Amino acid sequence: MSDATSAPALSVLDLVPVRAGQTSAQAVAASLSLVKRADELGYRRYWFAEHHNMPAVASTTPPVLIAAAASRTERIRVGSGGVMLPNHSPLVVAEQFAALEALAPGRIDLGIGRAPGSDPVITQLLRMSGTTSDVERFPEHVRDITRLVGAEGATVQFASGGTYEVHATPAATGAPEVWLLGSSDYSAQLAASLGLPYVFANHFSGEGLERALGLYRSQFQPSEAQPSPRTFLTANVIAAPTADEAEARALPQLRMMARLRQNRPLVPLETVEQARAAASDFDALGEQIMAGARAKWFVGTGDSVRADIASFAARWEVDEVMISPIAGSFDGEEMDASPGRVQTLELLAR
What residues contact 76, with CB distance under 8 A and at least 6 apart? Predict the structure, then answer.
């Protein structure tokens, strides 16, 4: 629980943004620098999302990024927000995260989602180029993964009556913490029925939040690992020394949201100056999309955003908020760092 006078724990969601003129190597370097700073500042956890074939997003392979982040940090939990399970074999996911747990014992989160994380063409390419799973068997595969990553492993039952023992790693002493992610009634109800912790992806749109949390909490079935409902929320956040700077740093991401919603060609994230120079190239609908998104984001000074996040946590009775630090960059800011995102984390940590 949280109330308006208490500060919720803060965590970070990272899509590894790529801005104009930036290489993938520079974008990844900036995110690894950011996770190191989050560790120093006391953030609870740091998750990498999975998205594919997007010019402004380099978080295509969460396990690789998690391994790199774990090697550069000491105490913060690192994980996926999330692995899009239909793109992968459940056994491969279990093996990857069991290996990560061995790399950083007690610090690994496995957030699992049901969405493809890309467009239909990329979904087909993923299925052609690797082992994937049937989306209709998603609940079954989530159960399989939770068993496979544990010390006892899973038992395969053959139609003939025989059994076969399967382990994601030979001698596990711990397991990653499994979370179910989503922004729909389906994911909330599934998490409740499996007794898993649940994260509502509020940073997507915020629609359906009240219903999803209500379903999750009212239908929750206690499990050995999770005796009571456990949840937190995500939010898009920008903090800066002044409100004007925060609003300026919001503009590139707002324009990206309008591009997505209007099915316009996607581009690397603009700088603030580029976004300002092109401000007139959206029609009334584009402007409406940007205004609607901005109304649901937390943008302002460190003090104002901290207060807003505390009220948000109290309103939904959560003790943790995972921020997606979406601050854009100005021309001339170094390419292998994210000054606006670092600034957001530092201001909120105070």
Answer: 35, 38, 39, 43, 44, 45, 46, 107
Selection from 11, 37, 44, 12 nearest residue 337 by Cα = 37
> Does 4 score more than 50 pLDDT?
no
Percentage above 90 pLDDT, the chain: 82
CA atoms of 210 and 207, how far apart (whole Å): 8
What is the three-class DSSP state of 338?
coil
Cα distance between residue 232 and residue 8, in whole Å: 10
DSSP run (H or E) holding 187: helix 185-194
Q: Pairing mode, if any, of strands 320-325 and 231-240?
A: parallel
Mean pLDDT of the chain: 93
The band of 308, judged by pLDDT with boundaries at 50, 70 and 90, is very high
* Alpha carbons 204 and 10: distance in angstroms, whole number: 18
- Collapsed DSSP state (helix, strand, coil) of residue 86: helix
**Would the pTM count as exceeding 0.70?**
yes
Task: Please report, for residues 38, 107, 167, 277, the alpha-carbon distance to residue 204 in angstroms, rounded to integers and kept in the order given.
Answer: 22, 26, 35, 26
Q: Could you give the CA distance from residue 143 to residue 90 in angstroms, rounded to a whole number?
A: 10
- Match 């492993």 to its residue by tokens: 153
Write the CB contacts of 32 (distance below 8 Å, at least 6 apart in sequence): 68, 69, 72
Q: Give the integer Cα–Cα distance in Å for 222 and 196.
A: 8
Q: Distance of CA 224 to CAs 25, 154, 195, 233, Å?
A: 42, 16, 8, 23
Please report where in the chains the tokens 């984001």 appear, as a residue. 297
